[in-house]
Specification:
Number of domains of chain B: 1
Low-confidence stretches of chain A: 1-18
Largest sheet of chain A: 6 strands, antiparallel
Structural class of chain B: alpha+beta
Order of helices and strands of chain A: HEHEHEHEEHHEHHEHEHEHEHHHHH
Oligomer: heterodimer
Mean pLDDT of chain A: 89
Number of helices of chain A: 16
Helix content of chain B: 10-25%
CATH architecture of chain B: Beta Barrel
Order of helices and strands of chain B: HEEHEEEEEEHHEEEEHE
Largest interface: A-B, 26 and 32 residues
Amino acid sequence: MNRLTATFAALGLFVSAEALVPMPQADAAEVVIGVPAWSSANVTAHVLKSLLKSEFDIDAVLEPGTNEEIFAAMDAGTEDIHPEVWLPNHASLNAEYVLRRKSVVMSPKGVPARQGICVTQATKDEHGIGSIKDLTDPAKAKIFDTDGNGKGEVWIGDPEWSSTRVEEIRAKSYGYDRTMELLQAPEEIAVTAIDAAIAGDKPLVFYCYEPHHTFELHDIVFLDEPAYDPRKWTVLMPEDDPGWLEKSDAPVAWPPSFFHINYSSKLAGERPDVSAFLEAVRLDVDTVSEMTYALIVERRDPDEFAAEWISENADRVAAWRDAAKK
Amino acid sequence: MSTWHRWCDRLTGGVTSVFRSRTGRFALAGLVFAAGSATALNVNTQIYNPETRKWEDYSPNTAIRYFRTHGQTPQAFQRRIVSFRTAEKPGTIVIDGDKHFLYFVLPNFQAVRYGIGVGREGFGWAGIVNIGRKQEWPTWTPPAEMVARDPKAAQYANGMPGGPDNPLGPRALYLYEGNRDSIYRIHGTTEPWSIGLNVSSGCIRLNNDDIIDLYERVDIGAKVIVLMQGAALYKGV
């Protein structure tokens, strides 16, 4: 499929990594975990730091940075781990460092992520909106109309995101760009609109992705769509072609996305026990959503939370430990 | 007693129509809506009446009648503590212009919910602002074009002092974008029947009891999330 450049990774930013990550001096012998600026990656970084302590007595250091910075640092040997590399979003970094230079290794098991269009459970139950095709029905689309112009409104994402361009394409492809108004706004506003819709018991439809704490906070569900089909997915981005929207067509669900722990070849060479353990770590979307919930909604201290999670999931961690030794 | 048609204290103006009542404020309200209805959309505000178990049109006339009978706005717009699940921290304000509610976030997934009156056109925007300052018995300054047209307004060109006839009511909260005054306000009212309706131009009004209550709770710098995009008139509560 066509590349989705970068900014999908900027989703979910409520707390800057800098605010949560201490900045001690890095020792050459320490393990350094790069921390990109979105909440699920931040929480995973803290959990990995706690695991390295409990399993190997390593005092890992957390270093905030962009994806590009972290990959370059792993290549240079100054950082060791990236907790959450998304494919297909970060495919170009993967191609350069994992496939071409081989200075970075991708843990093979990814966590399946998902994105699409969601409604509140109450919207589905009370108004019968369960499928994306419902949005092309003017009578159903009107349920989401709040300004009396006959067209419902749907938030499709932050104006800067690549995924928002894809959602414009999907709206055009399915046809609900004619029955609905496509709204673009920062995620913080859209998430609060969900809070208000739930509290006020009113229907709402919106772009959504998991893992995300909103799935833990509220009852929301994905709308049904035809399964992803690469033959039907023609997605051009504005940087590819000025006629990107007219030339694109994608009336199907998003392709499956995955995110993976990545680590440097240097770490694999110096500490094969650690890299084997990283390859054995198995997170899942529910776990990551719960973890993000703890950080964002409950405002838990990330180190405290990570330590607690590890002790509460001792069996799971033990299974990873056993798998690493095989 | 004369009262002023409600408008937002905006430097750029906006709705500048002013009607002076000779017979009292409810007559004033009728006048306001006779003028406004020509341009209004055909969607009527409705409110659920738990007594009749029906959706009823909640127009300014029914609002006035209700207020006269009961001395307060319908139940839905009474201040109350409600369930409010959110990632926003306590002390945050969320304004749902569509439903005419303002939520003040409390701990434990609760909020104080207030009924509000909003501008006829809505804000037309959704955004994140903050409480830059707050004022008891605030001064109100009519926009320049109102001063030019209406001698009654002209006498207050340099500001009408706070008091019972002041359109801002007993308290005002000033919304800032960063450090810059956005010109939008949350304030009280001299038209309590108007809570739950779009009758003013831009600002957010609460009942005087409610604005005093909110004023005591809110801190300077509090985050205010405004969800007004697309909101004009609404159906249902």
